[in-house]
Amino acid sequence: MKEKITDYNGLFITQRADPYIMKHTDGYYYFTASVPSFDRIILRRSKTIEGLKEAEEVTIWRAHERGIMGAHIWAPEIHYLDGKWYIYFAAGETENIWNIRPYVLESKEENPCTGNWIELGMMQPSDDDEFSFRAFSLDATVFEHKGKRYYVWAEKVGVGKQISNLYISEMETPNKLKTVQVLLTTPDYDWERKGFWVNEGPAILKGNGKLFLTYSASATDENYCMGMLEIDEKEDILDPRAWKKSRYPVLKTAEEKGIFGPGHNSFVKAEDGVTDLCIYHARPYKGYIGGALSDPNRHAMIMKVEWVDGAPTFTY
User: Fold this and answer.
1) Which pTM was predicted?
2) Is 306 annotated in the active site?
3) N or C: which terminus of the chain has fewer CB atoms within 10 Å of its end residue's CB?
């Protein structure tokens, strides 16, 4: 049975930003995302991607009333590692909402939508690293390659007008890093510096002997867009010189199609096990209603990834 998406690049799930979908060995697709209130983590599951639209949405965790993990619950991802479920997300403190750090939840239950979740606290840096997660850190993703597991995240540096870079480390356990952080990319180009200097929202896609890492850049209005890095699968993943960065964005606003600020994507295989799908969010209009964080209308959307000359392309 092949996956049937009724409306590529149309509204998939409304008011769900930073969308993440994974397919588990139990045959279910799992969906999570940021909600406009930024106060909880939700999950949906369905045997089909299309079915996620109408699937029951359950809240599996709520923000603390005080202290850490009390505000700005952002960009959750769900992963199944070493026989357990993990959710990686960012959160601020109730008393300091901009003290954003990465946190981890764990569940041993078969069904993560109904299972019990425990808090593992903040993601732990390696024993040799004094700098990871010392500043505003968010948007973590996890991937495996050649028997090793890697963690990629965004972290701000500098003072005043801070810069958001992407870093990578090998993982020792699901909630601890093994190696010191390595800078993968910083906002070098003009299209990464509109409104804010930002590289964030990493996602990994494998194909044709390479790893492709997409990321989002600039402010979260119509300037938000996707860039891409690539590396040969034989290269050292932790060597930043081995990664090649695309000079121009690979996905950006298409005003004529009513798609503004596409970004913060994830990838998943369709039901045929072959077709790659890009799950991303965008707004249906330019600018914001209210403000960047108060505007709830970043909607989850789906794009079919086309492969051209050995590389993924993203076209509406």
Assistant:
1) 0.97
2) no
3) N
